[in-house]
Amino acid sequence: MQKLIINATASRKSVGADPTFKIVVPPNVETTELEYILTRVMYNMVRIYARGKQIPFEDALVQYKEAMAVHIGVIHDQKLKEEQDGR
């Protein structure tokens, strides 16, 4: 049996434009399922980053952790601004 956990698409209005991302998580997905998928994706991202930079996995993990925290903070701030602007 297969179950869709997450579906993501990226689209661009024109060549060179910033992409728009749409991420859909079906309502029947359990938190543990989503956490597992996202954790595995992040693990692979760190592994690929470490290999590309030729640094130990642990060093890449520290760098990636900091970058993720900053990026999540930016997304949070953008959402707050959108709410304040009434979007």
Short summary of the structure?
By secondary structure, the protein is mainly alpha-helical. It has 2 helices and 2 strands; from the N terminus they run E-E-H-H.
Proportion of strand residues: 5-15%
Largest sheet: 2 strands, antiparallel
Distance between the termini: 40 Å
Structural class: mainly alpha
Tell me the number of helical segments per DSSP (H or I, 4 or more residues long): 2
Low-confidence stretches: none
Overall 3D shape: extended
Strand order of the largest sheet: 1-2
* Strand segment count: 2
Average pLDDT rating: 92
How much helix is in the residues? 55-70%
Order of helices and strands: EEHH
Q: Compute the gyration radius: what is it?
A: 16 Å
Write down the domain tally.
1
Describe the model.
The chain has 87 residues and is mainly α. It has one domain (7-85). It contains two helices and two strands. It has a two-stranded antiparallel ribbon. The longest helix is centred in the C-terminal third of the chain and has 29 residues, at 57-85. The termini are far apart. The mean pLDDT is 92.
Secondary structure blueprint with pairings:
Elements: E1 7-11, E2 20-24, H1 31-53, H2 57-85
Antiparallel strand pairs: 1-2
Helix pairs in contact: 1-2
